[in-house]
Write a structure and sequence with these properties.
The structure holds two protein chains of two kinds. By secondary structure, chain A is mainly alpha-helical. Chain A has a domain of 234 residues. Chain A is built from 21 helices and five strands. In chain A, strands 1-2-3 form a three-stranded mixed sheet. Chain A has a two-stranded antiparallel sheet with strand order 4-5. By secondary structure, chain B is mainly alpha-helical. Chain B folds into two domains: 260 residues, no CATH class; 221 residues, no CATH class. Helix content of chain B is 77%, strand content 1%. In chain B, strand 1 and strand 2 form a beta hairpin. In chain B, helix 5 packs parallel to helix 11, helix 7 crosses helix 10 and helix 17 packs across helix 20. Classes of the chains: A mainly alpha, B mainly alpha.
Chain lengths: 533, 497
């Protein structure tokens, strides 16, 4: 068993341990979960440090590290040909930073669940299942394997939101499930179509191997998804159709406007740790899927559709920011800010320039731990008074100085203050988009300007929230009772928050820590697509 | 008359030579007779005798069936077809009958009834015999006799335990519907026989006769026949009996009705479709269009109406209608060299349904209710059972990592293959409806975890021990099987090839 498999299946061992231990040992479950995720984080960190930045990844198996390949399902299906499914995993510059990020966010989530008493057994077991699925998604290089992890991820989330969520949890849980499932079942049809169009050049069998799907030479002449084929369904060329369906599946996860409506509901109803995972990891699965699947398998379609992708990105940035401005629920504000910030990811990817795509990757990583800390900060006051309506709080700075300090740092980091990581991500996206016109990828300059407007708006809503809740004379809705309840941050809470915010500063001043690892892969991806322009 | 006498020795020879091919069915017939005798004489002294003979009959039939594996043959003047398709289908039937038998015994040991149970086993064996024939013939006459054997057995099973008005009404509805559709089918058959003079629907004479027949009448005759099969399969618009009957019958009987007759009817139907579809004449068009429309409508109607059900047995009735639509789509997509797709889906479907009803039965024996709202908070009391129940639900939706997913994937693969070679846009439509209905089905299958895990029940009520543990254990065992098949489908698929 290689390191990557160990990383994926460690949580499964934790899950088995938790399920098998009797309920009387309920107190130990959180330590088990913490121990395993900490080990996982150290392992991911070790792998990250061992990874050499020259690995080009994307469409060459030789460009991946930590590769493991086992033949899994081999079937002779008669008229349907030879079926070939592999257990194929590997990491490149795109997936490895996200693996490290996921293990960090998982660690934060376990820390945030420290006071979880109700049905602790089920809770930690589901959390570990989710952990395994997420790691699997970021490592799988076989489409079948990817799809299995992708769907398995949904079940624990459904239950985590549905059982431990707020008042409206049933609605939020099923809405989240249906949105994602709707995207993914149609993805299944495209997978089937790709399976018929692609053969393994070595064995001649049909294959689910994503890397083979990225090589135009492996497509069978005249097959449904063959390059340059005249196949069309209802007037849409087959390859464009495949791209659109896959894009919608992942765009729901990012989420893009107008497919974002599950996100505020899910966030508002989900318990704090689940919000952290949702914002910190799951939205990144959308971005990762677009890079790994949509753009790499359908480079020709993404080269011709990138104007629309950019437009959707810009709309998400502005619409998300304006919505965040209008919210009165603290958590909803943060949720809409996620929509806005993830819009930058899409805009950067659409620019098809090395700067833009690197910026998008950097933005995903930076948004990963920053949104996780923001949701954790919301959870802090919600835990204490079970309220997070912005106008119910005023002048919190006087009674919770440490908390206000952390909030201020997190806000400034998120709104793109130079020196913090979000600045690097957003600046690179804007630069990439601005350069796109000179490179000739078809993204006009006004999209870059509209994107910068989004940064401005994010400053407005973050600072305005800071002003409304934390400054001025202390006035609370719950008067005396809330005064007593609103204690400042505990040591545990600071231990969780400090590393995330320190990381924002570290990556903001030393962005090469990430760029060095992902540069080769990003360049490879950009070449793959711009060849098709 | 002279001809007959002259041919008699040959005829007899043929019959005698064919008898060995009939061994598995002879075992069932033997067991049937033995169970009837046991009910009359032995049950008084040893209550389990009829059940034991039932199990024994199935267990004897199985190895006899295994002998036929890989030895395709025909017997009784080509009325009996022994090929791998029918052997696998019959193996599945025997397995399903075995599970149903155990469920019935468990159910009625929890909920004693005034009526002797022995007779149920004999009826089940008779139904099994009919279904065996249904999978192994391409002759209309045998098919009709087989369908009637199954139907009459089913009427008895539904009506046998009726204790109140609702159940009697369900049984009555079932009989009336069944007789009318049988009569319609027979009328269609007589027309077809008139046109062709041949009762084997794969024979060249039969096909030529159909081609020469007048268009209007031939269409009517074909539609009449589909009525009969449609009733057995329960596809729209012949589905109206299912919800009432499923709800009214005792749970293990519902488990029987929702799965086992379908195996036989689907196998017969797919034989028919394969014989007719490749011919370039209008009746193959009629069959094709009819199937496409019915498959689409059945998937939609079954899944959409299931959304509104509050009773889990009714919900499962509509879910099985939806699955029938899916099976019809499968029939359209498969050809002679990928029958294992259909067989795999049938196997998975049988397993899922048996597990579902095993769970429903276990819960019904404990709480006495089959209303979904009464599942509220039960997840806390029976965590293992409801976790497995949820996994079966996931499999019914067709999501990984369960066998239901592999089944759907294989079917989609087969349909896509047909689309790629024929470029017929109707197949794209079938694919889209097939996927869309999976999303819809999520809503109602997830009502099980919704009520049992997400809604909080009254925590005060004491934790009652689970009655009917064997049914629950069976269900859990099948769930494990579904997961294993979901991750390693080779095990079964390689066997089916």
């Amino acid at each position: 068993m290689g390191l990557l498999s160990l990383l994926i299946f460690l949580p499964l061992a934790a899950l088995l341990l938790i399920v098998l231990l009797p309920k009387t040992l309920q107190g130990t479950f959180k330590y088990i979960a913490l121990g395993f995720t900490l080990f996982q984080f150290l392992l991911a960190g070790y792998m990250y440090s061992q990874f050499d930045g020259s690995a080009t990844g994307i469409n060459q198996l030789s460009g991946y590290r930590f590769v493991e390949q086992l033949s899994w399902i081999r079937l002779d299906l008669g008229g349907l040909g030879q079926l070939e499914i592999d257990y194929l995993i590997g990491a490149d510059g795109i997936s490895l930073p996200l693996l490290l990020l996921s293990s960090l966010v998982m660690l934060m989530a376990v820390g945030a669940s420290w006071n979880m008493q109700r049905k602790a057994k089920g809770y930690f077991a589901l959390l570990m299942l989710l952990n395994m699925a997420v790691m699997g998604i970021f490592s799988a290089l076989d489409f079948f394997l990817f799809y299995i992890f992708y769907e398995v991820m949904l079940f624990p989330l459904y239950f985590l939101i549905g059982i431990w969520g707020g008042v409206n949890r049933e609605y939020a849980a099923i809405k989240f499930f249906i949105y994602t499932l709707f995207g993914s079942v149609f993805m299944l049809l495209i997978i089937v179509g790709l399976y018929f169009s692609v053969t393994n050049p070595e064995t001649g069998a049909h294959t689910f191997n994503m890397l083979y799907m990225m090589n135009p030479g492996n497509y069978i002449d005249g097959s449904f998804f063959a390059y340059g084929s005249s196949n069309a369904v209802w007037g849409i060329p087959a390859r464009m159709l495949g791209f659109i369906v896959l894009f919608i599946a992942f765009a729901i996860k990012i989420p893009i406007v107008p497919l974002h409506t599950w996100l505020p509901d899910a966030h508002v109803e989900a318990p704090t740790p689940v919000s952290i995972i949702l914002a910190g990891i799951l939205l990144k699965i959308g971005g990762y899927g677009i890079i790994r699947v949509c753009m790499s398998i359908f480079p020709d379609a993404s080269a011709s559709a990138n104007w629309w992708l950019g437009l959707i990105g810009v709309i998400s940035i502005l619409y998300g920011a304006l919505n965040a401005l209008a919210q009165k629920d603290f958590k909803r504000t943060i949720a809409y800010s996620s929509v806005s910030h993830m819009g930058f990811v899409l805009l950067g990817l659409a620019s098809l320039t090395a700067e833009g795509v690197s910026g998008a990757m950097f933005q995903m990583i930076s948004h990963g731990f920053l949104s996780a800390s923001l949701f954790f900060l919301v959870g802090v006051i919600y835990d204490r008074v079970h309220d997070r309506y912005i106008y119910h709080f005023r002048g919190l700075a006087n009674i919770m100085p440490k908390y206000t300090g952390y909030v201020a740092i997190a806000f400034f980091a998120s709104l793109g203050l130079p020196g913090f990581s979000a600045f690097i991500g957003e600046a690179f996206v804007i630069i990439g988009t601005f350069n796109a016109e000179s490179v000739g990828t078809g993204i006009p300059r006004w999209m870059a300007i509209a994107g910068s407007l989004g940064i401005l708006l994010s400053a407005v809503y973050f600072l305005w929230t800071l002003q409304r809740m934390f400054f001025g004379k202390t006035r609370l809705k719950g008067s005396e009772e809330w005064f007593k309840a609103l204690k400042d941050l505990t040591v545990r809470e600071q231990v969780i928050l400090f590393p995330a915010l320190a990381l924002a500063l570290l990556l903001g001043t030393m962005p090469f820590l990430v760029f060095d690892k992902l540069n080769a892969s990003v360049l490879n991806l950009v070449t793959l697509i711009t060849e098709q322009l | 008359m002279h001809d007959f006498v002259a041919n008699l020795p040959q005829t007899l020879d043929q019959v005698i030579q064919s008898v060995p091919l009939f061994k598995p069915e002879l075992a069932l017939i033997g067991a049937f007779l033995a169970v009837v005798c046991a009910t009359l004489f032995i049950d008084k002294h040893w209550k389990q005798s009829s059940f034991m003979i039932y199990i024994g009959g199935l267990l004897i039939s199985f190895p006899l069936l295994c002998q036929q594996l890989g030895q395709p043959d025909r017997g009784f003047f080509d009325m009996l077809i022994i090929d791998s398709f029918s052997v696998y289908a019959r193996m599945l039937l025997l397995f399903a009958l075995l599970v149903t038998g155990v469920l019935i015994r468990q159910h009625f040991s929890e909920k004693p009834t005034r009526r002797p149970l022995g007779e149920v086993y004999s009826i089940l064996l008779a139904a099994g015999l009919g279904l065996h024939l249904l999978t192994a013939t391409s002759n209309w006459l045998i098919a009709f006799i087989a369908i009637e054997t199954v139907s009459i057995s089913s009427y008895v099973l539904v009506g046998y335990f009726s204790e109140h008005k609702r159940q009697s009404e369900a049984a009555m509805k079932y009989v009336l519907f069944g007789s009318v559709s049988a009569a319609t089918m027979l009328y269609g058959l007589s027309l077809i026989y008139g046109f062709t003079g041949n009762l084997d629907f794969t024979a060249a004479a039969h096909l030529q006769g159909l081609m020469a027949a007048p268009v209007a009448l031939c269409t009517v005759a074909i539609l009449f026949i589909f009525t009969g099969i449609g009733f057995k399969l329960g596809f729209v618009p012949f589905h109206l009996w299912t919800p009432d009957v499923y709800e009214g019958a005792p749970t293990p009987i519902t488990a029987f009705l929702s799965t086992i007759p379908k195996i036989g009817a689907i196998v017969l139907f797919s034989r028919l479709v394969h014989a007719w579809l490749p011919t370039p004449f209008y009746f193959s068009e009629v069959t094709y269009l009819f199937l496409v429309v019915v498959a689409i409508v059945t998937m939609l109607v079954g899944n959409l109406i299931a959304l509104r059900q509050q009773n889990i047995k009714r919900m499962m009735a509509y879910s099985s209608i939806g699955h029938t639509g899916f099976l019809l789509m499968t029939i359209l997509a498969i050809s002679n060299n990928n029958q294992e797709v259909l067989l795999f889906y049938l196997t998975v479907y049988t397993l899922m349904n048996l597990a579902t009803f095993a769970f429903i039965d276990a819960i019904e024996c404990t709480t006495g209710s089959v209303e979904l709202s009464d599942y509220t908070g039960l997840g806390k009391k029976f965590p293992l059972l409801f976790t497995c129940f949820t996994i079966v639900g996931i499999s019914l939706v067709g999501l990984p990592p369960t066998a239901g997913f592999i089944g759907k994937l294989l079917v989609f693969t087969a349909v896509f293959e047909v689309y790629q070679s024929s470029k017929d846009i109707l197949f794209v439509l079938l694919l889209i409806i097939g996927t869309l209905t999976s999303v819809i089905s999520l809503f109602y299958y997830f009502k099980i975890p919704l009520f049992s895990f997400l809604r909080k029940g009254d925590d005060e009520s004491p934790v009652t021990p689970l009655n009917n543990r064997l049914a629950a254990l069976l269900g859990i065992g099948i769930t494990v099987l579904l997961l294993v098949l979901g991750l390693f489908p080779n095990i079964v698929l390689e066997f089916l090839r």
